[in-house]
Structures
1.
Amino acid sequence: MAITLNINGQDHMIDADPQMPLLWAIREKAGLSGTKFGCGIAQCGACTVIVDGNAVRSCNTPLASAVGKAIRTIEGVSVNNDHPVQLAWQELTVPQCGYCQSGQIMSAVALLEKSPNPSDNEIDKAMAGNICRCGTYPRIRAAIHRAAEMSKT
Amino acid sequence: MNTPSFSRRNFLKVTASAAGGLMVGFSLPTALQAAMGEAGEINAWLTIDPDNIVSIVTPQTEMGQGAWTAIPMMIAEELDVPWENVRSVRADANRHVNNADLYTTTSTGGSTTVSRRHPYMMQAGASARERLRVAASKRWDVPLEKVVAKQGYLTAEHEEHGVMQGTYGEFAADAVAVTLEAEPAIKAYGDWWLLGKDVKRLDVSSKTNGTAVYPIDVTVEGMVYAAVQACPVPEGKLVSFDFEAVKGMPGVIAAVELTQVKDVPAFTDLRSAVAIVAESWFQAKNALAVMPIVWDFGRGATISFESQTAEALSLLAAPGTVLKDEDGNVGKGLDKGVNHDAVPDLIAASAKLVTGEVYSRPFEAHATMMPPCAVADVKADRVDVWTFTQDIGRSLNEVADQLGRDTKAVFLHQTQLGGGFGGGYNMDVHRQAAAISAAVGKPVKVIRSREEDIAQDSQRPPVWGTYKAALGEDGLPVALLTHFVGEEKMPAFAQRGVANMPYLIPNRRHENSFVQNHIPIGYHRAPGANSNGFIVEQMVDELALAGGWDPLEWRLKLTEGMEPWQRVLLAMKAKSGWTTDMGDGEGMGLAVVESHGTIAGCVATVSVTRRGQVFVDRLQYFINSGYVINPLNAREQAESSAVWELGHAMFGGLQIRDGRIVNTNFDSYPLMRMPDTPPEIEVNLEMSEDQWWGGLGEPTGPPTPPAVANAIFYATGTRVRSTPLSKAEL
Ligand code: FES
Ligand code: FES
């Protein structure tokens, strides 16, 4: 079945089962491989994308439910890798293996759009769904504060 | 930084097109012969472009630990070239394997990339620099001593023409032809200009915009997808499956049986499994989930973690055996003038006996953030593979073995790894992809579901341990008997960090016993030391308290004269604010464990609520690895290993029932998350700088759980002897 998805401002015609998780449509059909698979059951956050302003786990979001909505993936965060969150991540050398980081960044971007100056508590809450096996949490926390600071100036 | 692998084909093409420029190859003493075999070409660790860009080859894999930055740093240090001019490129596994291990090794584990490999890697850079100098001295006709190689430029004062200068790039082609009379010595610590400085890893920015490529991201034209299921009880075998039942499901192409040859497979053998191949992975996975499959579960079907624990407890009630290594020596450390035979009698006759209770740690999975994946494209004349592996050369050989192909026809391409932690060794996903691609005649991407990953991972083994000690007049142990029970597949893990603990106790004996086990075992970040440290470093606190000693003073006393340990312990004393008495509900605990040649001390501060909930408020680390080439990366790795192991200690633990692992995803196998992460993690680098090198990718893990458990003891008076600590009744 042909379905139209709007990803990063562009329409993609996707021929797939409407029950297919959005994650696999983004990766295999739209060919955007920055969004990752980690658990398939909304537990790890590797697949996080932003749908209509909210961070969602694309691995358990059926394709059909994303129709007509604005989907943002890591590829749509900035053209030149220079969104404040990306810059802060680079400055504080957050990523290690990097595999979880697309999801971490999407969660952080969604958080900062809602709460431009989050407290540690808010950060903990917003980021609790994103696992990082490399344990980069202390740097993520610091980088979110740094990104908030950068966005102000 | 997704540079293509520096294949031989590329190499020749570039050489031909860059007229008069390029190519400096460098020989390692061990690899020189093999390299010379290739039409007179010297083997390549680096190339220099005419525009003075230096590409440095990385044989080791990158999994977040920084190998793709550390290797170029070591070579650039010797070459003396501006860091901005350096590019990091991938080694060609095919070239390595088919030229007598051209790069010495492609294995990436044990925190060895810097600690063990720096001599020959730095040598490659030094050799290059010297050849460039020789080339300049010839072209300019000046004595060699006058030629200075610095920051990408060769400079010399010529008697008639004055100052001569050129870039390395201008002399690269000449340098290839130079044969040195003797290889130069590598620089000593103190002469470094780049090593020892904070350098950001080169691949960081590719990991903030989704462009870093992992095996799961590789696509090949015409590629199909496979979901796999191996026997849920490891060692068991497939009896039958009913493909007819799922054949008509959307996208389904084929089912492929993967055959396990031996009854008990070796760690890297293909295990009995079945795959469904489909047009998308989602379709493959759905069909596999409903396909009827019959297994013969084999000997493991009656084993549970509870049955292994019961077996371990009965083994601990009787004497174990004293393990000897290949040379007949008792465990490393126990042979240094320690009288292990006298121990049972000394314990039996002791006036002040301390009898330990049983401590344990369970199985843990790697659960790398990227579940194991591989892409294979098997053609009649060549095979291409991209896979989760911590050793590209070894995996290439295994693919060749799986397919019965010549290694010359197998090309295994390095990608980024979504974590490794030792999981990339005892792994068969590359064999699966190769076998499936061969069977269906198409390129195939295998993705393991998280459930399949955890069920089939090579797990960190469990351990159960206890001790008895006879104390002397001064409260210090005169004799110590430790008895640790491991599992039968990797017995050495029940020794590491115990047999070779540093403490100077005049009579020591370490005994081992082993439970039956069918679960595959692997290397899990600081293997052996990770679980054993939990037991040893709580035992030490028990012994210190029984003898009336402060736990830190006890450790200082029993490592007297051992500079690397003293350095760490004295730093802990000076900087941590150490006390065993923080007041109600709060506690500070410490532990110090050596792994991979590095001594890491941890001081943990915890608070425990009235309801018994534990919060780790602060972790302070004191690390001595001898030298550090990149303090920034050292800190990153220290934080990483700390969070990693704290996660297992607080929340982890695999459950095994009817021979199978039952908690196979993050809902049932919880690990560290942001809210659980201590607000403060402090890293102090306390380097001896004294001719020995330890690794830095793992050592802060092992001291973390015992430091936290000791802190819980001082906060509550309750000693927690098993993990997960979050389940302890406090
Ligand atoms: S893959 Fe979606 S949350 Fe883990
Ligand atoms: S950076 Fe490796 S899992 Fe987060």
2.
Amino acid sequence: MIEVLEILILSLADDELFIGHRHAEWIGLGPILEEDIAFASIAQDETGHAQAYYQILTDLGLPTPDEYAFKREASAFRSAHLVELPNFEYDYGMALMRHFLYDAAEQVRLDALRKSAYEPLAGLAERLLREEKYHWLHARVWIQRLGRSTEEAHHRLQAALDQLFPYAWMLFEEMPHEEKMIEAGWVPPSAELRMRWLEKISPILMEANLAYSEPKADELQAFQGGRHGIRSPYFDSLYAEMTEVSASDPEAEW
Amino acid sequence: MYGNLVVRPEDIENWGKKIEEEDPEKLAEFEGRIERGEKIEPQDWMPFEYRRQLIRLIEQHAHSEIIGALPEGTWITRAPTFRRKLALMAKVQDEVGHAQLLYSAAETLGKSREQMINDLLSGKSKYSNVFNYPAKTWADTAIIAWLVDAGAIINQTTNSKGSYGPYVRALERICWEESFHLKYGYDSVVYLATGTPKQRAMLQDALNRWWRPIMHFFGPPDTQSVHTEKLIRWKVKLATNDEMRQQFLDMYVPKIWELGLTIPDPNLRKNPETGRWEYSDPDWGEFWRVINGDGPCNKERLAVRRFAEEKGRWVREALRAPHARYVTPLA
Ligand SMILES: [Fe+2]
Ligand SMILES: [Fe+2]
Ligand SMILES: [Fe+2]
């Protein structure tokens, strides 16, 4: 069962690790200083969350958070491809939309995890939600404001939503051995969480006059597999950068 | 758009006046207040020259914070452990926060953040020269966080005894945060200094490259610098460049030596008779060349800022749109 638990926790942790990485790229390059700071602050939270998730496994005698983050084979990662996507030449519309779709998913996910039968996860979810509240507030307020501002802003957000929606959909890709996780009472089915997620984002998008259409199963080919160890085309360069220093002297302590 | 402009230029009756054109009575009263150690606040009368010098000083300081976030910022995604990554993110976030505080402080004097940023991008206003050098390796980030921040603390602590209320208050908070950066930087340096041969070599190499920019950090020697007695009387400038440089050497050279590092200046020593540090000429010609735009990274730094300005323009326009109200920042 520990292998199944590891799949679940890594799916959660790896998303946080890479979204934190991508958000951190905005420091110094945001549209206004306040947003550099907001993205930096959210990036710190998410990176800290990744560490806390890995630590649950470490406490069971599995690798340390640093080993999980910096010393793993590509195929051992379980992140959704959404979080591996680059910042596309610093398109803030894309960054904001990803942040919105992702943090809505986190809200839903953590809310469900609070009731997890796996005690350490339930306790952690409770703690993380206290920080997540601000992520969600930030994302929501900005989508609401920009969605109803200028034509250009609206156009950019719609284009971002079109591009990102199928990726975000796959945040709820079924995990390997998910039926065992459900049976153990650790998590509800991913498909059910996805419905809750849609309920959360729909009214806000609608208010901002932003539309999405649910992808059909045969359209999802290019976006799936993240939870099963299939990496997006963006992973290699991302991970090379993340491990550049740690890999330069593997014996060293930093 | 940021709404911090407390005083509008058109409301300032002596805007643009030379010091000899100012009302002598008001001027005497103003100088008396400073002498008694009172703080000058935004709505108070002040000579235009005081206002101009402070805007210049605070604005340059603010620009240094955002430009300074760039060389370190690129290492966040490369940081080798969770601990370092989280600390570096927090540090760089603080630096951007300092810029925000300082722009607000400068805005109370009648120049808007937008104007200041435009002047940065056009090259009209400067920022600290030290950020025109590249952070080539992880060890550079450690040296920056330790020694450049140490320099910044000396400079800022000195300035925090100044006469302008909003600047002094911003600096007090900034110094408090900088002290954490210094601890983080020192801790990173210690790990490298006591680490593998590769790490030690990387650290020594970083120190070799950063020593000269650090010596330049406090500005040209007093014999070459053109600050007047007036700025000292007005408590805009509180210590001379050489005084601050001596203080830095006194505090940090022993610590650097203690770590077994070599400072790349064979003539560096404390003269036991004068109690002052002596050092080789750190090539002030280079200092002036870099300040005038010809440093290793001047073009790149401004290009990155211009890129960010350009990329973010639609967002700022959207925030100005009629129904869009300003969004409260998160942090
Ligand atoms: Fe999170
Ligand atoms: Fe989040
Ligand atoms: Fe700072």
3.
Amino acid sequence: MSTLAAILDQIIPPSPDGRMPGAGALGLADAIEEAIAGTGGRDWLADNLAAIEAAAQDAHGTSFGELAAQDAEALLRTVDEARPGLVQGMLFPLYIAYYQHPDVARALGHEGRPPHPQGYPLEKGDLSLLDPVRARAPLYRQV
Amino acid sequence: MTEPVDVLIVGAGASGAAFAWSMAETRMNILCLEQGDWMDPSDYPTTGNDWEARRFGDFGLSPNGRSRPEDYPVNDDDSPIKISNFNAVGGSTILYAGHFPRLHPSDFRVKTLDGVADDWPFTYEDLAPYYAQNDQMMGVAGLAGDPAYPPKEVPLPPVPLGTVGERLARGFNKLGWHWWPSDSAIATEEHSDRAPCINLGPCIMGCAQGAKGSTDVTYWPKAVRAGVNLRTHCRVREITVDENGLANGAIYYDAEGREHHQRAEIVVIACNGVGTPRLLLNSKSKAFPDGLANRSGLVGRNLMFHPYAMVTGLFEEPLDGRMGPAGCCMIGQEFYETDPARDFLRGYSFEITRGMGPVGSALFGMSQGLVPWGSGHHDAYAKIVDRTAGMVIICEDLPEEHNTVTLDPDLVDGHGIPAPKVTYRLSDNSQKMLAHASARGRELLEASGAVRCFTDAPLPPAGWHLMGTARMGTDPSRSVLDGVGRSHDVKNLFVIDGSVFPTSGGVNPTCTIQALALRTADYIKKNLDTLLD
Ligand SMILES: Cc1cc2nc3c(=O)[nH]c(=O)nc-3n(C[C@H](O)[C@H](O)[C@H](O)COP(=O)(O)OP(=O)(O)OC[C@H]3O[C@@H](n4cnc5c(N)ncnc54)[C@H](O)[C@@H]3O)c2cc1C
């Protein structure tokens, strides 16, 4: 797993019950890299990835992707504190990429397909709830 | 290509379409110039899994962020409310939510009843037949019998309430407040070649089903079949006048950027409350050095939005809010009419909105600090997704001359035409109304079972109702147009879009804009022989 994929897997980790996939394992790293580069953040990202790798080597003598989940999250929080905005700068493209993924949608109990062309059924609702409103005198001002 | 025409319409949005269709029966030579193109519904966001992301790209609300070639920039830095629009055949109805309430009779009598602003130069009853005609053409769904309005028919059955609507209905009833299923320009049954709504969700990104009544699927196909010529990718730079001060056509750029002078007997402007004053102010001549039809100095003044509050509630149990027409569910008008006991004049409508999709839920959770990253992420997110519902609240805006559309001294569009600049301040009345509305909105959500509420007021992107910048009236020194939308200064020039509103009411404006356009067309049709005397 690349450093970025390993980071994404800490930002949105797999859920303990295994229902929700981790963001890194979902293969979103390329899309996130592209989105960040598209807004002029290529150097910012490279710099931060290097800082995280250096911190992992310093603290654990291994690469970030090799760390146990608990150590990885703690390390990411430490580096994020020292470099404010590191994680925040990835959240917007990550939340979009993750939550529009069909596997994630299905894990949420949604259909995991575009809304069109099937659409969705929807309850018409109980229009007898209008009875008290129907019973009211006209509300509009007479002119 | 540039044969003279009888009637030239600029702009193919809500009003231009209704007007063109109505005029078509005259068999006159009618041409509409539109800077945008026909949209392709098979490319609308809901046809892909990335539908929520496209709100931040090619289906954004702001022309500045969206930057399609058809868009023109708007400098709205000096306004807390930012411009939202769309430029295509169908105009802003491509993105609109289709919420379709009429004005109330009292909205036409603001000065008489409340001593502020102005009366309209006609009444609700005068407009009622055109509202009804427009409801048929746009395919309006709803329910007759709403006690907030004089009796009226509604062509199609209402949009489904869903669990969101039922929940909010119980909240309204608990408080004893008025609510009613929304009048919605959404075909809930097959209507006039349109497929019925299948509850895709985000109507404000274009309707891939064709059920929402955007005018590219309602009026335009009929108008074109009846002989109206709609020319796309044509951006009008200015309206020209002859030596007698009559409008005689328009200079425009075609798709290849070539300049043309289109001549016409009658010119009708339908570019919306920002595009129209921009075009008039860009149309300077010896006879009109301050812009066309601007002897009153009021072109571009009295800009009205509806200041919006958005109140979102978080519920504990799952709701179906990601499905169904996002902006059409129910309307609440308990606080619509002026109440002397309140500290503001006029009033507002609740427009109940549904929920959010999975991406929207995550971004909402992030922005409100409800969803952390890391190990707590999924538990926190699960408490939000499919658990939001709420409303936007549409507050009446009163006309003030210092709220303006002017020409930006530096900013230009892709053809080098000066772009509009918006200058707008929220009035004291609006601020008090927003505060009242936000508090009542929270009260309603709490009565409906919400465990937390979030308020955003004034809602920044809510510059989607654009009104007042070429107002109608009887006094040429206090208005730009007469009571049928004809310029006081130029007798063969008409304006038919939201610019014409003397006051804004507290409801979405489009059915009124279109009813007015149909009424202007009717006036022209009935007076063709003497129109230019
Ligand atoms: C996100 C959103 C949601 C909305 N929701 C609702 C709702 O629920 N209910 C409601 O009533 N209203 C709603 N509205 C507002 C509604 O869309 C407008 O009131 C309505 O479309 C205005 O009609 P119009 O004819 O005045 O202008 P528009 O529909 O904006 O049409 C103007 C047309 O003129 C063209 N044009 C402008 N300048 C030029 C030029 N120089 N040359 C050539 N062509 C030009 C434009 O390209 C455009 O197509 C919403 C709007 C938005 C953006």
